Amino acid sequence: MNLNELWTLLPLLILACGALVVLLLGAVEPGRHTTWTGVVCCCGAALWAVQTPPLVSVSFGMSDTPLVRSFILFFCLLAAAVLIVSLEYNEQRGIHGEEYPATILFVTFGMVAMAGATNLLVLFLGLETMTFGFYILVAIDLKRGTASEAGLKYLLLGAVSTGFLAFGLALLYFTSGTLESAALLKQCSGEPLAVLGWGFVLIGIAFKLSLVPAHFWTPDIYQGAPAPVVAFLSGGSKCATILFAVTLLSTIGNYSALRTPLLALALLSMILGNLAALLQKSIRRMLAYSSIAQMGYVALALLAGGAGGFKAALFYAFTYALMSLTAFGAIAVFERSGITDQLEDYRGGGCKEPFAAAVLALSMFALAGIPPTAGFTGKFMIFAAALRSGETAAAVIGILTAAASAYYYLRVVVNLYMLKPEKAGRIEISLAEKLVLSTAAILLVIFGLFPMLLDL
Amino acid sequence: MTVPLIQIIILAGIIFSLGLICTLVWRSNVIMLLVGIEIMLNGAMLVFVGGSYRWGAPDGQIFALMIIAMTSAEVSLALAMVVYLQRRHKTVNVDDFHELKDQ
User: Which residue in A161, A100, A95 sits closest to A134, CA to CA?
Assistant: First the structure.
């Protein structure tokens, strides 16, 4: 391993060693500082990813392009933000122990490996590292029956989707004879076995993005898992998967055989996700169905592809992660006061907890796609790309469903501000939490006004 | 005697479908679900090893070895959860877990 290779791999090493240090530290002296150690490791890895490497090199199946670096930076900062948000939440829920920050670091390791992977083996292992971490994180709240139920459901369905993904990758390898993704993707285009392999890989991606009909796990996991974990799952895991899908699809270039299934996934997700979200009484389940719908828009952007669709998909991946961080971060704050996930419990939240309510309301505006938030800009880019690529019907359906979705997002805002609270009670928010949530909220507006800042 | 490549693919396809059918049919029992998932992954591994043989390169075999390592981690995680759920709910029947659902 020479110096350049070490340079490329250092974010991964920082995260992996950091996770081990956190585990050891927890064994010697447990307490809150294990979480802070995790935050420091994430920030360290992020800082390392900021600088340009001396030489763009490909080593150990990892590349180091500007796009990859910006995603590494983003994943690390997201992990740090999630760790900070979960501090008070976990304290209140009784989730003690160093395994929580350590698992978050391992998950981030998986995401970073996935982002940089140029080799299908590294990519697969990164994806599995990330998913395994989430299996544990979803079920980490052992005192609640719902958390373990959510963990079991996620594990079983996730393992089935892993089977599909592995079989698809195996077929692709069988037809092309290489695991290097660039070479592999160029070679296999028309062979029936390769097309079959692509189909299986698409099923795996659809599961991770929770596209209809592979969406069954989403509402249960969103309802049962701890709120900061949901923020990370919904933001980070989906962001990493979108990057994976964009890398695959942009390399093969001509993916005509995948167009019809992708279109079907996009349409079903947009329509069913939005319709089911309209009916929900629980804010978490509502956000789960909304995430299905939002991923439908991303699938539409993937379909639009070269006509600005990939750029739009990556932009939306970033903004969606910010939106889930703000939404579930605010929900984590609210749930500390002992309320359930029912929408009625959020009545008058604006009086009880002005800060968290403002953040939640902003993220609802962003999810609904109201300007000047990044949600609007992202949706605009997606639908413009879809129209440019000639998918007029799908774009029109998408715009209509997005308009309908405003109803259930704004219902949350109405509950927060226009209805009287049933019982009063204040929640203490720490300075770090305020800092993280307000930064994420401000970024949502900044990226909405100046999308060129995120030129991917 | 060498085995024709197409037969490897067909065999792997059959194994994969058997695993998938197992997960769909014995949906209620966690252990049977895990067995089905293992069988699906075995089909994938067989294709990797077959591909490795076809191209005379070791990467497919390495991938298969990694899948073996991964599945053992997965099974240990799943069984830990099964033991926990067995203690908590006194059952490993997936259909008995229905606290989380649409109202």
Answer: A100
Q: Identify the residue whose tokens are 């649409």.
A: B102
Do B44 and A166 make contact, defined as CB atoms within 8 angstroms? yes
Work out the burial of residue B95: count CB atoms within 10 Å of its CB; fewer than 13 is exposed, 13-18 middle, 19 or more buried.
exposed
What length does chain A have? 456
Q: Under CATH, to which class is B5-93 assigned?
A: mainly alpha
Interface of A with B in 137-156 (CB under 8 A): 139, 142, 145-146, 148-153, 155-156
Q: Name the residue among A145, A163, A220 with its Cβ closest to that of B88.
A: A145
Smallest CA–CA distance from A123 into chain B, residue: B63
What ipTM was reported for this prediction? 0.94
B4: chain A residues, CB-CB within 8 Å: none
Residue tagged 């670096």 (tokens) = A69
With a CB cutoff of 8 Å and minimum separation 6, the contacts of B34 are: A156, A159, B75, B78, B79
Residues across chain B: 103
Decide if A380 contacts A294 (C-beta within 8 A).
Answer: no
User: How much is the pTM?
Assistant: 0.93
In degrees and rounded to multiples of 5, residue A282 shows phi and psi of -100, 135
| Phi then psi dihedrals of residue A18, to 5 deg | -60, -45
Domain ranges of chain B: 5-93
A285 near B CB under 8 A: yes
Is the Cβ–Cβ distance between A313 and A382 less than 8 Å?
A: yes
Eight-class DSSP state of A389:
T
- What confidence tens digit (pLDDT) does each residue in A186-218 have? 766 667 888 888 889 999 999 999 998 888 889
CA atoms in the 13 A half-sphere facing the CB of A37: 24
Q: pLDDT tens across A140-183, in order?
A: 988 887 888 888 889 999 999 999 999 999 998 998 888 887 77
What are the residues whose beta carbons fall under 8 Å from the beta carbon of A341, sequence distance 6 or more?
A223, A282, A283, A284, A285, A331, A335
Structure token digits, residue A51: 């600088």
3-state SS class at B4: coil
